[in-house]
Amino acid sequence: MDFFSRTGKMALGSRLRLLTARLTDDAATIYDVYEIGLKPKWFPVFFVLSEEGEKTITEIAGEIGHSQPSVSKIVREMTAAGLISENNDTEDKRRNVVALTPEGIEATARIKEQYSDVNAAVEDMIASSRHNLWEAIEEWEYLLDRKSLYQRVEEQRKIRESKKVRIVPYAEQYRATFKTLNEEWISTYFEMEEADYKALHDPEGYIIDKGGSIFVALYDNEPVGVCALIRMQDPAYDFEMAKMAVSPVARGKNIGFLLGQAVMRKAKELGGKQIYLESNTVLKPAIGLYRKLGFRKIAGHFTPYKRCNIQMAADLHTFAD
Amino acid sequence: MDFFSRTGKMALGSRLRLLTARLTDDAATIYDVYEIGLKPKWFPVFFVLSEEGEKTITEIAGEIGHSQPSVSKIVREMTAAGLISENNDTEDKRRNVVALTPEGIEATARIKEQYSDVNAAVEDMIASSRHNLWEAIEEWEYLLDRKSLYQRVEEQRKIRESKKVRIVPYAEQYRATFKTLNEEWISTYFEMEEADYKALHDPEGYIIDKGGSIFVALYDNEPVGVCALIRMQDPAYDFEMAKMAVSPVARGKNIGFLLGQAVMRKAKELGGKQIYLESNTVLKPAIGLYRKLGFRKIAGHFTPYKRCNIQMAADLHTFAD
DNA sequence: ACTAATTACATAACCAGTTATGCAAATATA
DNA sequence: TATATTTGCATAACTGGTTATGTAATTAGT
């Protein structure tokens, strides 16, 4: 199929569907030829029952990876075909315990030869290909269990978007941005406090002139995020990370992470050993970001901010870009 | 999925379907997130039109590997969404030439980022697996183009069945079988001739005592096929293969081939160089079998049988078991 | 002991594809 | 030039799955 070499991997779903349809069609013919009186789609249900005797609808569904209604339908069809008997045993009247009838059990014997022929044919195809389809599927199932394709695509999007982001040092032209971005989130979740007004009104005086720095994230050359590095007067912590703010329209581009990295890199450059921050646990994504940057919860440090209910610190020795 | 390690390769179709469904579900979410206003199932149609401009329904169907009605439906949906315009150009009023509208073309630009993110995510998954799913699918498409799964399973069935067949030398107890099996097919297609009556009535006298042999195929210890090796009085051909008959109930077990091999092996063993046979072209499967055994058409040899309209011979030097 | 929540399932409605079918337009053939 | 065949497509009906929903039976919570 030349088509898929042009589309690229984007069409993996389509390609898989086509291959599946092809095999399914052949499967129908094969089942016909062996005259066992089984429909291909019955196979998974048939198989678990032949191996494990009695089962409820939901148990079967879980085991074969189908939805419950799907198994419900298949069971009805197989009952009509005389292969399955329903409502066996069961004190619990909600449960529908199904099992193979004698005819069903008899079919298990007859299907063995078909089973071994199909198996041999597939093994043969696998043996004559360089890439093992069966194993590849298994690996994909495993990988998708750990992280869905959607999540993986999201990650790629972030990586791509973050390449468009530039982190630059503070300049006077960004004073307004520094103020408004911070006011925005603070007043959304909390209230502006005295210390906020001071720092946001005069960042040069309150942050930079005291040996700190501010970084600005540009997206398409527009400032969309800020973060400050503040020099502390504390024997344990040399620096504080503070006033991180990212415009809501620029979410999902990894900007917080890039700003945090810039701040920590600078702190390390200036000889810092520990970096400190304070925040509030209602800001879940922020806390997650801090953890990703290497911050861990600490306790008992003085803070002038009311809104602060969590304090964190990171070791700058172990911080690597 | 422990389930599939228990079923074995028989459930390849099921397993593929499950994986496909999983990816399809995620695809829907991904398309939503990128807000391009495209449904995943539109992608193949969208792609060909974006690459190649105008196309008819049937052309698209052929290219993307869908059925024509499928494309018909997709085109209707995309038209409703304003992405496609129908019935462009066309002197031939049967044809429905479709193309992207300006909005559709605009969407091609917007989808590029989604495209590259998905591509990167899939590449990443492929890179982190030992078995390349994409390549494996391609190989399967190739293999299935050459021979369907059904045909491959049939081959395996024959191999398995032919293992149950034993070829044994003639003994008196098989005289009746030798006669009836041959009478059966001869009188079905032709009429019994004088030479038939003689050989079938007294195989010992007419075949074995004259330096020939007869082989019998047993299936479950029942005789189901016979074939004779007759010594000839001819400078060109040492032996003739004749009176091959297989019971109709034992078809598809490769019995003819096994009998033919036994006869040719014996002929070679006896120092034969060329083996000859005569048949009739209405017996298509038989002629195919002879060709598979190495026989090729020759002309101009004398035959006492009216029903014979083709003569074939095989070189025994090149015959290998 | 009674009510609320949960569970097991069937049924209905939908989805993305398919095959079967019919019709109109175009082409081939006598 | 009239008729038969082929082509291109739409539509209908089916398939093997899904999600959504309703209901009866059971279990949990007060």
UniProtKB/TrEMBL annotation, chains A, B:
SMART domains for this protein: HTH_MARR
GO molecular function, one term: N-acetyltransferase activity
Domain HTH marR-type span(s) in chain numbering: 9-149
Organism per entry: Sinomicrobium oceani
Protein name: Transcriptional regulator, MarR family with acetyltransferase activity
One family name in Pfam for this protein: MarR_2
Span of domain N-acetyltransferase: 176-317
Domain of life: Bacteria
The organism's taxonomic lineage, starting at the top: Bacteria, Pseudomonadati, Bacteroidota, Flavobacteriia, Flavobacteriales
Keywords: Transferase
